[in-house]
Amino acid sequence: MKAWQIFTHSVRQVFGNFNDALRISGLIYIVQMMIAVALGGMGISPGNTLEPTVGVAFGALFASLAFLIGSLWIAVSWHRFVLRAEGQHSLVPPFHGAKIGAYFVKSLQIGLIAAIVGFALASLIGTLVLSALGQTVFAGMLVIFLTLVPVLAIVNRFSAILPGIALGEKLTLTDGWRATAGDGVTMLQLAAIVAFCSLLLGLPLEALTPGSIPSLLAEVVLGWVQVMVGVSILTTLYGHYIEKRSLV
């Protein structure tokens, strides 16, 4: 199955270059997590006034901004490393501000498409499933899964251009869609694999006490795996569908 080939190729891309993956993303990712944990500890007590509340809001905004910039930095750097072998010896990957900005704009456009499609699908699927199965936990999870898979498939098709944006290529939003034309079923299968594996990765967290040190460590490690495999899937899609590389 081609979808499984794409997924396993992407996993090998990360763990077959494990030291490089850690070198490129590790420090940025850890700083992201430290900021999130530090600012996440700013609780709001009942006696707090407006000033602490405003401080918490700015803290959350700063943490979100740091997470966004860090994630884009990792994605662009990983695409460039895998596809062009850039930054093989640098301790911290180069910061390509213009390319990161272009990557963000394209990602935002794709995100808006996904939000519109996701809302429409969730409304339709939710109505059908809940009317058939009632308001149960299983029905809710089924709605999420049946909505997530096609939306993720659409996102992957559009997002196949993103590694090219990281390389500085002039690509339009529809280039990825056209390049993956005829492989819609493969994209759905890939989305289902990713959704299922994400669910499996979340299971260990259910057995840990929320907020505990083991839970925090598990979230950091599993989150890193999801980020790197997700970015590698886009790298694989670009390499295979746009640069016409074989899946090995």
Outline:
The chain has helices spanning 2-15, 18-40, 50-84, 97-133, 137-159, 162-167, 175-179, 184-206, 213-242.
Describe this entry's structure for a reader:
With 248 residues, this protein is mainly α. Helix content is 79%, strand content 0%. The protein has 9 helices and no strands. The protein has helices at residues 2-15, 18-40, 50-84, 97-133, 137-159, 162-167, 175-179, 184-206, 213-242. The relative contact order is 0.14.
Features:
248 residues, mainly alpha, globular, 79% helix
Question: In percent, how much strand structure appears in the residues?
Answer: under 5%
**Which regions are unreliable across 5 or more consecutive residues at pLDDT < 50?**
41-50
Please summarize the sheet with the most strands. Answer: none
In total, how many beta strands? 0
Gap between N and C termini, in Å? 13 Å
Over all CA atoms, what is the radius of gyration? Answer: 20 Å
Map the helices and strands.
Blueprint: H1 2-15, H2 18-40, H3 50-84, H4 97-133, H5 137-159, H6 162-167, H7 175-179, H8 184-206, H9 213-242
Helix pairs in contact: 1-8, 1-9, 2-3, 3-4, 3-9, 4-5, 5-8, 8-9
